[in-house]
Structure formats: C-alpha cells, structure tokens
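Chain A, query sequence.
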Amino acid sequence: MNFYQTVKLVEYLARRTSGRPVETPGSGEDPELEPVRFQSHASLGFSPSDMSRIDLKPVDNGLPVMRVDFLGLAGVRGPLPLFYTQLIRDRVRLGDTGLRDFIDMLNHRLVSLLWRLKQKHRPTLHTGPTHEHDFSRYLMALSGLYTDTAQEAFNHYPDNYDPEGDDHLLLSQDLIGYAGLFWAHDRSMRGLERILEHQFGFHVHGLQCQGHWIYLEPEARTALSTTMGHNALGVTAIAGRRVWDAQAGFRLDIGPLDWDVFVDFLPIGRRWDALLKLVRYYTRNAFSFTFRLAVDPGQVHRRRPGLSTQPAGPRLGWTSWLTTRPLRSKEARAGAVVTVTGRSHPLGEQGPAAGDAGDATQMADGA
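Chain A, predicted structure.
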C-alpha cells in the first residue's frame, strides 16, 4: 500500500469522524490535533513495503499509529550506528520502550515533514477544503478570481450561512475548475455554455449577435440650433433618438427545465443571482444578454388563481400564462417560455425596462 495515499485516507477519515479539529501532520502546534502518529520500524532487515503496521484503534485510545519502514533515525536505513538499533530492540524485548519512544518522537517529525513536502506539490493529496490549497489560490489568481472585484461579486456570505443548506450560493472557489476558460483573453460563447451546463446542470444554447435599440442620451442627439449638436451630415448626424446595434448582445436558451428548477432560475427564484453574476463576470459586463427559460412541456399544467397545488401559487408575469383555447399537441410540446433581460447595453439605455429583472415576455406555446 502506498504511504501517501494511506495518510490521505487516515486524515480524511479523521476530519469526518473524529468530531474535533484536525490539522495535517506536522503543520500545527498541538500534536493532539493531528490525525496519526508516525513510528519507524527499528529493524535490521529490509522491508518490501513502505509500512509494516497500521493501528487505527490503539489500546490506549490515542491517535492512530502508522509504522513506516522507509525513513527513520534507527534501522539499516537510518543514520545512527546499528548499535542503537540493536539496543532499542533489546530494551523493547525487556519491556522498556523509553528509548524507542524518544527516537519515534523525532521520527514522527521527520515523516511529517516528508508528508507536508509531498502534499504541498501534489494537490490530490490535500484533504481539506479545496479553496484552501495553494494550487487553488494559484488557479484563482490566474483566472482573475482572486481580485477584489471577483471576491466582492461572489463571496457574500449571509450571517446564517450553511454550506449544505445554502448550496444555491455561488462562491469564487466553486469556479476554480473553470480557470482555463476564465484565463483566456478571448472568451467564447462555447466556453460560457460549458460553464453554465456544468455548474447548473441544464442544457444551454447561446445565440450571438442579438441586436437591439440603443437610446441616445439627450446631449448625443442631433440638434440644428447649436454648433455642437452632432449635425454633420454623414458624420455625426442621426435621425431619431435611438440607433440599432446589430451585435449588442447575445441570448441564452436554457432548458427545457423541470418546474422547480425553472422557478429557481427566475428573478424571483433563489438561484437567479448566481446565474446573473456568473454570466456578467464571464462576459466582463460588456454585453447585453437575455435568458430564455423553457419549461418541460410535461410540467406545464392548467392553473387557476387560488386553486393551484403549487405552494406559492401562480405568479403573474412569471409562472402563469393566458390562453384562449386548449393547446394543440404541437404547441404543448413547445412548453412555456419566459424571456428575461439580464443587463442593459453599456453605451445607452433600452427604455424604461432595460436591465430590469422584471422585464419578461412569456409565451404559452413557445412560438
């Protein structure tokens, strides 16, 4: 059995079953917080394995004991003369373990340093929270997640934060696996699709070059009575109060979704904030975008105000649709769709509802 993998498993078990704080061997000031005690086998022979004994439940109810054969002060591989090895063995045979215990106190420190050295350069041996490892901090720095902007955007813990109950929160350490995509200077639509699909578990299809009207500020509109009225024909003059930008943003078609998931990702849902922050951060907040959320057709049922079986009931503008006739089979297969604007264009406004979480267009037949 490999020594490093064994120590990793012992430390992993200690963190989850001991009910007390656990520090990696050799890293803290209190040895009682370590998950295992290392000993070296003082032998005159050459062992074929890294370890000769593992005692997970010592008689004295102390820490688990691991006896190694590849490193120690005594033994055929140690720096001490073989006389000390023979002396240790003779004293142990007579029931005196004082010399062996003293040597093992030093051996524990040596083996702990070796473990820390290996663990530092092998991220897979880390048993604590992923974001606490040095490699995680390196990846976060390379991908821009270690900046003040990213920390402020993602790492807002509520006062009663629960890692298991508040799994809808999106934290910067949750994005470490996407460091390669965030690090790229040119961020693609395919990269955004992959991040959203992996992070949230739904199907995403992105449509680029989605144009919209950009409303001009009053001082940027053409005026004939002033010298600075943007009125040079063919240069700065614009007829009207708005211009069409054919590549102002993009659209993300999400779904079809189960009903509960659909509600979670609406602006009234608990995961809307995480979705919005992630898209804004990936796109560097430079584009307008909309989400087109589609419900699984099999979960679109007739609902009446006050008679719904859903806990919150139908919500006007979000989870309710008006139809003048029963849906035909083709329309029913399309499901229900809600389109939500995520952000307005950075160069101007789109009108009164631009960028508003309440800006939604719904279609019962998905047309």
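The longest helix spans residues 98-120. The chain has three domains: 3-128, 129-185, 187-215+246-363.
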